[in-house]
Amino acid sequence: MEWLTSEMLLKTDENVTKNSHTKKSVAKPTEPDKISVCDVMKSKTSSVIRKMETQIPSYVQEYSDLYAEYLHTIDDLFGTCYISEKEFFDKLNIDQKTLKAFDDLWGFWEKTATSQIETSTNFMGAYVQMRISAIKSYDRYVHTMMDSYAKMLSQYNSAFKK
Length: 162
Hints:
By secondary structure, the chain is mainly alpha-helical. The protein has two domains: 35-93; 95-162. It has helices at 6-22, 37-91, 96-161. The chain is elongated and about 100 Å long.
């Protein structure tokens, strides 16, 4: 006995519904289109998911704008300090070897920070790919289970017809 997938069951239900409305010899008055619990849950859930998907670009852009403004403010702070303090520090006549060591130290911190940013970005990319892979695996599992469920329902319905 051939078993039906959930997609096949839906197409079969659609065809039955279409055919029942097109037959002219039906004595019963036509009923308004019936909806099922599954129809309601699927359509409403899909609607919410589609709405969430449309919001992703604006959410990402808004967060990016916020973060850029934050970074711009910090950069301005150091720029303002530079202008204000340059004359003061220049008058101190700090030894060039000391300034070179200070520059090397800040260079080390700069390299460390940029390396950590790159590492964090790479980690986040790998983490997102792992989660996407897990979701796809779960989706395949759900489809397998739904196919089994559709087969069981088909067998159950066949038993009632006998």
